[in-house]
């Protein structure tokens, strides 16, 4: 009987001490931050959002902390070119730490594009390289076997590799943005945290409402939700991924393959040199939101121009 | 033995009680003070604190620059009221998104979006709220016999008439309650959701006294259509299609001053007007050709383009839906 009491006594002594020690261990608790939501004023039908003039100082001031986004846009001369570049610039003006690399498919940089870039006030690099005639699309037919813009994108990659050294601490993200797509501002926020290659859904590609990567419960990409050749190594559109600059610099041999690339395999030709499927980082809420649309602009019907050109050719459109 | 045990237990309990009481007091003292968390400092926290520091810096800069601006307070710029009719289709969200991104660069702009729908859709509602723009969200369905059917060419029936008129109606009603009566400063512009607008066009139209005009690119089957200006006045119109119209120009090629809209309460678009006469049906009642104000460097520069977006090909989607495997409709 005494022995039992001894044991009870010992337990009663030791137990509270263990509890005390565990509580002590967790005593380093950071104070909880309270969040406040700002409300926009409502006046009848009008919704006014309180905003400072800051929004109109375009582009936003450069931050030393945010990684830069290098947007590579190949472009070529056609009637809608200036319109496309104008509205793309209007979008990019809202993105902080943005560097626009515009590569023209031309022998020389054209004055109209030069002027446009200067007027926007964006941080840009203007390059040009002409696609050799035998690679160019014949007439108006869209031949999927000759991917457009490949040589231009490769030139931009080469420029990045020549300009930035892998040892510099500058963090950056590389994104290929065609001049006729539509990009939400949220997309640029999502891609900023790319460590290697990040992916997300793209609307209006592959004959579907949207194509997207398949993401499992662990947040890893394991396949592609597409109808058009889902067995491609990377069944994704050019607008559906972004690459960390460091990865680009560390693999100097990785470029888009020019010759012998099957339709839809252009993106894979670059990505397979850079990363494996398991390394992909899904964004846009585990690839459930659409933040970029593969819009295409109609070719304007210029029937009334006639042979000689009705309108003054000196007026730039 | 038993008494010794009892004594031992009692003292132990008393001892424990005293120690834990002291511990509790000590812990309560600790709660009020900051913890020394240097060992918890992770890279993410460091980034966050650096970003906060930058934000503080920018806010200070902003406050300083606004403080210096105060003494030279300029009169408020006239507001540009942009009326955009829109309707649900695949590319609607994309079109409205990039349009909102253009407008976000323009100060003093009020976007009036009128949906061709019997009720407001959540897609447009959410987009407008997230855009950060000052906006008004309206809706007005088009009468069935006026609506374009699947497969109709786009020029068959005039589009957006009821919606633009609804925008005008709301504007007149809203402005009636404002101070200044009919003398309010402002400009009304009809912007379709698939066109492309440069930022300069908005600054050009801000000084509109009655009706101002400028060239429009990629319209009327030509590279651009424009008013021809001689001696600072519009004398005729350069267009390839039906130049005999009273005002042969596109919806995107003119802006009307708010004063004129308020002074002519009945002026609106006539849906029964023949093809291409929609713009004239409004402008005829408001202004004559020699009263037009030419902008964009005497109508020599193209600052707005009548772009059109292709209808995305959905063959595979339709095939999938036939099999019941269509992509998730809940995703916008």
Automatic annotation (TrEMBL), chain A:
One Pfam family named in its UniProt record: Glyco_transf_43
Bilayer-crossing regions: 7-25
Binding site for Mn(2+): 180
Function: Involved in the biosynthesis of L2/HNK-1 carbohydrate epitope on glycoproteins. Can also play a role in glycosaminoglycan biosynthesis. Substrates include asialo-orosomucoid (ASOR), asialo-fetuin, and asialo-neural cell adhesion molecule. Requires sphingomyelin for activity: stearoyl-sphingomyelin was the most effective, followed by palmitoyl-sphingomyelin and lignoceroyl-sphingomyelin. Activity was demonstrated only for sphingomyelin with a saturated fatty acid and not for that with an unsaturated fatty acid, regardless of the length of the acyl group.
Keyword hit for S-adenosyl-L-methionine: no
A single cellular component GO annotation: extracellular region
Entry's EC annotation: 2.4.1.135
Residue numbers annotated as active site: 267
Binding site for UDP-alpha-D-glucuronate: 74-76, 105, 148, 153, 178-180, 294-296
Protein name per its UniProtKB record: Galactosylgalactosylxylosylprotein 3-beta-glucuronosyltransferase
Alphabetically ordered keywords of this record: Glycoprotein, Golgi apparatus, Manganese, Membrane, Metal-binding, Phosphoprotein, Secreted, Signal-anchor, Transferase, Transmembrane, Transmembrane helix
Record-level GO BP terms: carbohydrate metabolic process; chondroitin sulfate proteoglycan biosynthetic process
From TrEMBL, chain B:
Naturally occurring in which organism (per UniProt): Gasterosteus aculeatus aculeatus
SUPFAM superfamilies referenced in this protein's UniProt entry, alphabetically: Nucleotide-diphospho-sugar transferases (SSF53448)
Principal localisation: membrane
Keywords: Disulfide bond, Glycoprotein, Golgi apparatus, Manganese, Membrane, Metal-binding, Signal-anchor, Transferase, Transmembrane, Transmembrane helix
One family name in Pfam for this protein: Glyco_transf_43
Membrane topology label: Single-pass type II membrane protein
Listed name of the protein: Galactosylgalactosylxylosylprotein 3-beta-glucuronosyltransferase
Residues that, per the record, bind Mn(2+): 194
UniProt keyword Protein biosynthesis, yes or no: no
Pathway terms, separated by semicolons: Protein modification; protein glycosylation
Lineage: Eukaryota, Metazoa, Chordata, Craniata, Vertebrata
Active site: residue positions: 279 (proton donor/acceptor)
Keyword Transmembrane helix: yes
